[in-house]
């Protein structure tokens, strides 16, 4: 995940103690006159470091201005960009404070999971018309689920990603696998022939034979990846009809059983949930694990820091030679494998003075070329089929080869209570991996805690 350091936006905000710094240009918001044309300034904000999310809006504004000129309208749109540098919690708090002061951006780029509280707090406008627009007609259908809340669309999809399982090709070769077998593994997973249990057994074999230090590694901190296991075991995380977080006890028990098993078999590091991210990346690129639950953006991470003991930074070509990517295997033979995505979205302030111009800008920024420029630079996936078919995207072998994963993806609930649920589940997983609790005990304690923390926002399914 991104590591962002906070800085200061203004002395007023500093005194308030919550708002953090935003890099921005010197343009003032609102409207002004320029060469007898009315200039409408639209503010857009995103979090560092993917600045292309707002830079693309500036490019979309150029197209919008061309449209306005052809329509004979004496208006010119200028986008004022802000890039926030701080934690995700601070990013949300500074938006709420700015909203109260009526100084929030017109366009607020954020993770899809935030649209629940943004909607409930009347911070943002519904964007149902986007789904009917020509520009969003080629969106991968499943992605609309990520921006739907209470039967409305609340965000313009900006990008998405996949969280595959990386596998070490060198270790598989040492196990006697042929080149064809190695290259066919993603397809076997896709067809439900290679299951989660097969993955565990293969990791156990590699470790037993001394071919790798670890069989499996996952993220060391709380995050989305863990919850994909509930989906894999046939469970649910959210009930949209009742708008409640779901504790699916049967699926969560299997989830805890899985992490308990790989810990008891010593397939993961003893202190995995206490490790630094840098040590996770070093273990993966240095061949110390057969499998790694990661994200496609890790390919970019490994090219930016000296994680490899001999080579330092490793490029995309090196990654593809030594590592492969596959979907998370199905829990049962013949089942459907899956992944989990975390789409970033543009939301529109309910206080914007220019809703029509803003919405048209969001249509134009979905241009395939603009999507691809961002995706290739930041190692993300496009949200429309037209962008996925763009020649510049197809030329990017790594991303093009995993785009199919979008059809198998899942999402976190767009509910304000989910962070509480997620933290509690992570603590339960950590407890079973460290051997402090059995899965049964961890589940019982989890139920008690969630009942207390979430109250009537929780639905328990036995």
UniProtKB/TrEMBL annotation:
Residues 1-15 form the signal peptide. One of its GO terms (cellular component) is ATP-binding cassette (ABC) transporter complex, substrate-binding subunit-containing. GO terms for biological process: maltodextrin transmembrane transport; maltose transport. GO terms for molecular function: maltose binding. Keywords: Coiled coil, Signal, Transport. Pfam families: SBP_bac_1. Residues 47-74 form a coiled coil. Belongs to the bacterial solute-binding protein 1 family. This is Family 1 extracellular solute-binding protein.
């Amino acid at each position: 995940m991104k590591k962002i350091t906070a800085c200061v936006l203004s002395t007023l905000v500093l005194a308030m103690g919550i708002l953090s710094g935003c890099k921005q240009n010197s343009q003032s918001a609102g409207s002004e006159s320029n060469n007898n044309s009315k200039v409408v300034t639209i503010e857009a904000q995103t979090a560092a470091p993917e600045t292309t999310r707002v830079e693309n809006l500036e490019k979309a504004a150029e197209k919008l201005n061309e449209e306005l000129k052809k329509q004979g309208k004496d208006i010119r749109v200028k986008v004022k960009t802000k890039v926030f540098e701080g934690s995700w919690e601070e990013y949300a708090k500074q938006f709420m404070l700015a909203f109260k002061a009526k100084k929030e951006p017109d366009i607020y780029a954020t993770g899809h999971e935030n649209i629940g509280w943004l909607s409930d707090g009347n911070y943002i406008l519904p964007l149902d018309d986007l789904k009917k627009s020509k520009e969003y007609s080629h969106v991968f259908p499943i992605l609309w689920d990520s921006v739907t809340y209470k039967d409305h669309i609340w965000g313009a999809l900006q990008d998405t990603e996949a969280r595959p399982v990386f596998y070490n090709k060198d270790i598989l070769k040492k196990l006697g696998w042929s080149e064809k077998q190695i290259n066919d593994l993603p397809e076997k997973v896709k067809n439900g022939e290679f299951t989660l249990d097969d993955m565990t057994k293969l990791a156990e074999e590699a470790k037993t034979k001394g071919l790798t230090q670890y069989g499996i590694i996952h993220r060391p901190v709380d995050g989305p990846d863990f919850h994909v296991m509930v989906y894999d075991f046939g469970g649910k995380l959210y009930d949209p009809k009742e708008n409640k977080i779901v504790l699916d006890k049967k699926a969560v028990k299997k989830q805890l059983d899985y992490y308990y098993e790989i810990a008891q078999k010593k397939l993961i590091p003893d202190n995995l949930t206490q490790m630094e991210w840098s040590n996770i990346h070093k273990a993966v690129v240095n061949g110390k694990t057969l499998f790694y639950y990661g994200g496609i953006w890790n390919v970019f991470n490994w090219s930016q820091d000296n994680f490899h003991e001999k080579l330092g930074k490793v490029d995309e070509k090196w990654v593809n030679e030594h590592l492969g990517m596959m979907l998370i295997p199905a829990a049962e033979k013949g089942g459907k494998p899956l992944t989990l995505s975390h789409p970033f979205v543009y939301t529109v302030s309910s206080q914007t003075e220019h809703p029509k111009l803003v919405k048209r800008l969001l249509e134009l920024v979905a241009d395939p070329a603009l999507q691809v420029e961002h995706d290739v630079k930041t190692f993300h996936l496009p949200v429309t089929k037209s962008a996925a078919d763009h020649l510049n995207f197809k030329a990017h072998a790594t991303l093009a080869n995993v785009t199919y994963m979008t059809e198998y993806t899942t999402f976190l609930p767009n509910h304000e209570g989910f962070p509480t649920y997620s933290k509690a589940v992570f603590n339960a997983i950590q407890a079973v991996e460290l051997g402090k609790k059995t899965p049964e005990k961890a589940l019982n304690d989890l139920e008690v805690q969630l009942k207390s923390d979430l109250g009537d926002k929780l639905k328990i399914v036995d």
